[in-house]
Every structure is written in structure tokens, then in C-alpha cells.
Amino acid sequence: MKRIIYLIAAVFMMSISADAQSNNAILFTENGEKFQVILNGVLQNATPETNVKLTGLNAPNYKCRILFSDTKLGYLDWNMYFTEMGMEATWNIKQNKKGEYVTRGVSAVPIAQAPASTPTQTVVVYSTSPPPAAVTTTTVQQTQTTTNSGTGMGGDNVNLNMGINVGEQGGNISINASGMGMNGSEESSAATTTTTTTTSHSVTTTSTSSVPPGSTVVVSNPPPSEVIYVSGYNGPVGCPMPMAQGDFSSMKETIRTKDFESTKLTIAKQVLQNNCLTSAQVREVLGLFDFENTKLEYAKYAYGHTYDIGNYYKVNDAFEFESSVDDLNKFISK
């Protein structure tokens, strides 16, 4: 009996320890806009939803993109931070007074004390690979039977039964008609289907064609297109997701307000510990420094935290001396 109690206690402690090593994140839109979540450049939920719960987040911060299903709304980039592990944090996605979409923290509680997921909530376990494409299955059944009997001009009886099932919904239609007809007897059976499936990324249409009654038509939606952070760039990537423009502007303003060059450099390096920049952003940061040696030191440090490293030659424009350009190129070549 004691061994059973010890075993139960051990399992319980292991579950608490596992929860303490990861976080949960709940994201929802205030006005019900549907969206998809991209963490560190990887799509998490294949179908747009209004409330998404992400579990198994074992890092203290992530680069997050909220991709709205309504393309007119665009997307929202922000940094998801957790102050400690083992927490379930909730963020509200809403519009500010300027009409811009922002995230606002709602609550943060230990996972052990968090309420259970609601039926309207989509729960997704964090993954470093994109989810499979959504699949729509449509089953179509249609039977038409026509019977003519009698001699000379007589009455025709036409019976039409149709059953259509789409996903979990269905319906039946029955039609009986009487009229004038010819002698003889006929029976025929045919089935046609026209299926249109629409997602936030594409529209797939299957044209009308004859299929055997009771057959199943499977329509697969193509996966969402890859997110492009630097227009026209398809070269090597040095980090998963560059810093959002709003966060980058805040960082530059913080650096600009400092008086000492060493303080500016310290802050600029500190930001890169948990963030990624584009080559163009690195060049903008270099413009905040006064001395050539400071620019060179930061350019070397930032190379390992740059998304489009194939464009890093553009950083050379920030230097005044050719010797600095040569020094940076030698550093990169190593």
C-alpha cells in the first residue's frame, strides 16, 4: 500500500515539475477577428480562430506574429515574454485609439491554478514544424429513379431522392410528381457534385463531374504561403524572425536618449540577446553611434543576430573609412 502511495506521489511531483518547465499562452481578439499564430517563424494553428491556447512553451520569450484571416487587417508582430516558468499568461488582441492592433496583458497565473480550457477555445501544443494542411471531406449521394407504365397515354410517377452530407451536417430532399408520359419502363442513376472550399489563404474548387453514388470526394487545402520578412530576399537566414518595426523604433529611441557611447553600445547589444534584426535595421543602429570603432564592434556583434545575412554588405554604407569595411569583411569570412 505504501509503495502505491509513493508511486502516486512521484507521478504527481513529476507532473508539477513538467508544468514548471513550460508555459501556456492564451491569445484572443476583443472583437472576434479570426487569426493564426506564428511563433519564431513557424505556423501553429492551421485554421484561423478567435481564441487560441498555446501549451508546451519552454522558452522565456518568442517572436510572435498574429496573422488575421481578413487580409485587409494585415498582421501584428510583437515579442511574447514570460517573467517566470510554469505560468499561463493571457493576452488580448485589440485596436488602440489610433486604430492599430496591439496586445495587452490580461492575467498570468501558475498553470496548476489555471482554469480548464473552454469549448470555444482552440488548444495547440507548441511545435517547431508547421501543422498539416486542413482537409475538407464531402460525401455526396444522389439517386433518381423514373418508372413509366401503362398503355397509350398514361400517368408517369417520378421519384427523386437526394442525400447530401458535408462534414457532420446533412439533409435529404424527396420529390414526387405525376404527369403525362409514354409506355415503357426506365431506371437511371447518376451523381454530380460541385464543392467549393474557402480558407484565409486560398480557394479550391472542384468542377462538376459524374461520380459513382456514395463516393467520397476529398479536397485538400494547400499550406499557407511562407511569411516574407524582407521583400525579394531568398538568401541564407541567420535568425528566425526579425524585430517588429514598432519594437525596433522604441529600441532606437532608447539608445538615442543616452549620452555616453559605451551605454549606447551596451543597450544595443543587450537587445540582440533575445532579438533578431535585418541588415537594414543594423545599418540604422550604426547611425546612432558617433565613433567608428564603436560602429565596427557592434557590426561584428550583430552579424550573428541578423535575419538576411546575405544582405549584410549593405551595412558597409554606415562606415566612413575603408579600413573598417575591410576589417568587417575579414571577420565575416572567418
Rounded mean pLDDT score? 77
Strand order of the largest sheet: 8-7-1-4-9
Biggest sheet, open or closed, and with what strands and sense? Answer: 5 strands, mixed
- What is the gyration radius calculated from CA atoms? 31 Å
What do we call the CATH topology of the largest domain? Immunoglobulin-like
The number of E-state strands comes to 15
Structural class category? alpha+beta
CATH class of the largest domain: Mainly Beta
Portion of residues within helices: 10-25%
Based on Cα principal axes, name the global outline.
elongated
Low-confidence parts, pLDDT < 50 over ≥5 residues?
Answer: 136-140, 149-153, 180-192, 196-211, 216-225
**Gross CATH architecture of the largest domain:** Sandwich
Number of domains: 3
Strand content: 35-45%
End-to-end separation: 64 Å
Order of helices and strands: HEEEEEEEEEEEEEEEHHHHH
Please report the number of helical segments. Answer: 6
Task: Tell me about this structure.
The protein has 334 residues and is α+β, with helices and mostly antiparallel strands. It has three domains: 2-125, Immunoglobulin-like (Sandwich); 135-220, no CATH class; 245-333. The protein is built from six helices and 15 strands. It has helices at 2-20, 245-256, 261-272, 279-286, 292-303, 322-333, and strands at 23-29, 35-39, 42-43, 51-57, 61-68, 75-81, 87-95, 101-110, 122-125, 135-148, 154-166, 169-181, 192-198, 203-210, 216-220. The strands form four sheets. It has a five-stranded mixed sheet with strand order 8-7-1-4-9, with no helix packed on it. Helix 2 packs antiparallel against helix 3, helix 3 (261-272) packs parallel to helix 5 and helix 5 runs parallel beside helix 6 (322-333). The termini are far apart. 20% of the residues are buried. Residues 136-140, 149-153, 180-192, 196-211 and 216-225 have low confidence and may be disordered.
